[in-house]
Amino acid sequence: MKKNIDIKQIITLVRGLGDSFLEDFKSKPLPVNMDDLRELSHDMDMRFQKELQSKLETAYPQIKWPEEETEPAQQLKPLTIPEYWVCDVMDGAVQYVQHLPGWTVNLTLMKYGEVDFSVIYDPILKETFWAKSGEGAFINGERIVPNKKKNLNEMLAVWEYTHHQKDEYHIYHKMGKSVTHLLEQFLCVRNYGPHALQLAYVGAGRIDLFHQEDLDTTNWLAGLFIAKEAGAEILTTDGKPWKYGSSSLMVAPKGIGLQFLTAINKI
């Protein structure tokens, strides 16, 4: 008989990890070159990933922790493992090493190809977002829902991108057009750094639309699931239902994504 997860226990572990990050925040000198940036990020990831992995494997030995090299495959489709964790030890690592806010610890549980649970912890604001399949989404124990604004020109949109495919001109061009369309239609267009946190903010009504043109599945998973369980609509940027492996993502309250596409004559 498989052991059900203890949500409170997992949240406590993730919070503990995030608070450990907070203790060291701004303790290292700012990076001055790419080698510094890579070293700081790698050391941080390895130290804290091992800590969380060890505790989760002890508590839930039946749930696998895939090796890091499986990550590219995870972008396109779920792994064939029945249950496994997807962990972003530091979402917003660049902000962290640059001594800026806007970084989180994210953990997602995949079960038979679908997200079953996810948690996002922001140590600076002491905010924990989490969702369980079919049970809704929460922040610090309070249920969240998307905003009920009706007019795009009263809304806040965020635009995101990934570090993949940056050598491909058409990706840059497509991103540029997207930003132009967003600026034309929305009151404000911003980028807050960590992908999953911004998606959770859509679920909580703080952000009205999340837009990203390129593939970034594992960065999206934790926040996408929280937004979905909160009641947001999960689409691609051309208005189709999003599915695992889709090469774009648009998340907003129901009807808002299609309203945006209609406004820019894309459908």
Folded structure, characterized:
The protein is α+β, with helices and mostly antiparallel strands and 267 residues long. The protein folds into 2 domains: 7-143, Fructose-1,6-Bisphosphatase, subunit A, domain 1 (Fructose-1,6-Bisphosphatase, Chain A, domain 1), CATH 3.30.540; 152-263, D-Maltodextrin-Binding Protein, domain 2 (3-Layer(aba) Sandwich). It contains 8 helices and 11 strands. The strands form 2 sheets. A 6-stranded antiparallel β-sheet has the order 1-2-3-4-5-6, sandwiched between helices. α1 (7-24) packs antiparallel against α2 and α6 packs parallel to α7 (217-230). The protein is globular and about 50 Å long. The termini are far apart. The mean pLDDT is 91.
Short description:
It contains 8 helices and 11 strands.
Low-confidence stretches: none
What would you say the CATH architecture of the largest domain is? 2-Layer Sandwich
User: What overall form do the CA principal axes indicate?
Assistant: globular
The level 1 CATH classification of the largest domain is Alpha Beta
Distance between the termini: 49 Å
Instruction: Report the count of strand segments.
Output: 11
Number of alpha- plus pi-helical segments: 8
What is the helix fraction of residues, given as a range? 25-40%
| Radius of gyration based on Cα positions | 18 Å
Helix-strand makeup class: alpha+beta
Question: What is the percentage of strand-forming residues?
Answer: 15-25%
Strand order, sheet with most strands:
1-2-3-4-5-6
The CATH topology name of the largest domain reads: Fructose-1,6-Bisphosphatase, Chain A, domain 1
Biggest beta sheet attributes: 6 strands, antiparallel
Order of helices and strands: HHHEHEEEEEEHEHEHEEH
Would you tell me the overall average pLDDT?
91
Whole-number count of domains:
2
| CATH homolog superfamily of the largest domain | Fructose-1,6-Bisphosphatase, subunit A, domain 1
